[in-house]
Amino acid sequence: MRIGVISDTHGTLRPEVLDVFHDVAHILHAGDIGNEDVLTALEALAPVTAVYGNTDGVELRQRCPDVATVELEGLIAVVTHGDRFGSPEPQGLVAAFPDAEIIVYGHTHQAVLELVDRTVTVMNPGAAGPARFGVPPTVGIMEFEAGLPPRARIVPLA
What we know:
With about 160 residues, the protein is α/β, with parallel strands linked by helices. The chain has a single domain (about 1-155), classed as Metallo-dependent phosphatases (Purple Acid Phosphatase, chain A, domain 2), CATH 3.60.21. Helices cover about 15% and strands about 30% of the residues. It has 4 helices and 10 strands, in the order E-H-E-H-E-H-E-E-H-E-E-E-E-E. The strands form 2 sheets. A 5-stranded mixed sheet has the order 3-2-1-9-10, with helices on one face. It has a 5-stranded mixed sheet with strand order 4-5-6-8-7, covered by helices on one side. The radius of gyration is 14 Å and the shape is globular. The mean pLDDT is about 95.
């Protein structure tokens, strides 16, 4: 199973995202979506689990939760924007979500991929929307194979 991981689109869905996510079975969006059109376009590719971020308006806050939990190939994944943790760090997120085996977050616009305590995969796919803070746009891909921990990578968009 292949999963697309995205965050901080801020209303912009780059065409490269559609190329990278063309064969994913599920998409996780870690907030600051920007508008419902982004979710609609992603849902045309695969089922989407999304949370709202600190810049998302009322419509998205009514449609998406603050934190979402989803089972992926038998592993518990938690998706959060992360803004309630200030500048979230993998160790702090693992402490906040002790039952999670995968944690996906956004907010910082900085791509992070870390294995914490050899059991929890923590990923911030970076920001996929308009370029900000001098950081190139990125998304993430996770791949699952029975009996193995998830493999993940950050994918540059530009």
